[in-house]
Amino acid sequence: MKEWLKISCLLCVFGFIREIRPSEPYVTEYLLGPWRNISETQLTHDVYPVGTYSYLVQLVFVFLITDFLRYKPLIITIGATGVIIWSMLIWTTSLLSLQILEFFYGTYMAAEVAYYTYIYAKVDKKYYPRVTSHTRAAMFAGKLVSGITSQLMINLELMNYKELNYITLATQVMAMIWAFGLPGVDKSLYFHREQLPSGDSQTQLPGESNLAVDASQESAPKQPNALGLLWLHFRNAYTNPRVIQWSLWYAIGLAGYLQVTYYVQVLWKVIEPEPLIAWNGAVDAVLTALAALCALAAGYLHTGRLRPRTSLLTLALLSAVEGGCVLICCWTKDIYWSYGGFVLFGALYGFTITVASAEVARNLQEESYGLVFGVNTFVALVFQSLLTMIVVTDTGFELDAVGQYTVYAFYFIAVGVLYLVSVLVECLAFRDTESEKLEDSLD
Which runs of consecutive H residues, i.e. helices, occur in 239-364? Predict the structure, then answer.
């Protein structure tokens, strides 16, 4: 087996195992069940927001530490924090312990950047598209297995909501152990770059004086330090209008998606407080499968078939449709309609986020994918935190679940309208420019 493929497979196994978390589709059912003394209001206002804020605060530090520590320690940290989180879920009962484990959940999610960027430091650039698809596919496969497993365990009455956490804990232990076996990284993009000697591009020939070599070394451009390179890549990326345009959509879309998926189990609990069978696992599995197919379709359509303006128009329309799906989720009294709206929302998001990611990457000049991904995710978490403060917590409107999801729905509709207007303005500006060129040529 080729070395790059071997490394890709090793990382994919970690991603696959880590995503097998059958307790997650039922975490709200578990927390509001007889195993813990906590109310829906406490869960929504005092527990879940801690994870949002923790993820936001830790992301910037984790990104820099990931590069400095060369990826592998942070991948091990993902497994270790997973063990801590699900151990606390199983063996603690207090509200404070839930808030503490939400802090670790922020670490668990923030450190995910190491999983996405590790492979780029280990394989040649020509393999980037393949290894990216491998790592994404591994995570989708893990989520699919997780959803199917959880639903079967519940439907066949082999496990209750608490016992599903034991499977998740076991997979996190396995993922942590597997992470220790990943190959170490000798170099990284910023703090541990390959430093070529100043005169490396020139080979000293027999009889050539050392003075000439020294002169060439002195004239060679000095490589910027880590912080200088970070700033250079950041400035080059975010002074490009196209990168800003697509990065903003990426951040806004991701923020809305995180908020919708984070609290949806609470919404379902409101629509049907005591379901005979909660189909959360099946919904998770179907959503994962459709999102994967839509992501593949987006990758196929985007390779030269969609022009930038067409892509933007498509995303504007689909964002509005996503908002409509969220309205179906929260305005219906039938839990199955809510399930269907959520699945369709997730599938459309899988398509749109893939297009946005590809457009961002296409407009980057340097190998700064990890930096831009980290910054865009940070901006998304800022938006998500603002949504949480305004909509969920007592510092804002403190809306109920239906009110929250109504806001999220119109959030996506507003994003669609905003980008639709921007496309129309851009088209008008382009038409005026072309008219002026035509007039100048006639003159």
Answer: 241-271, 280-302, 308-331, 335-362
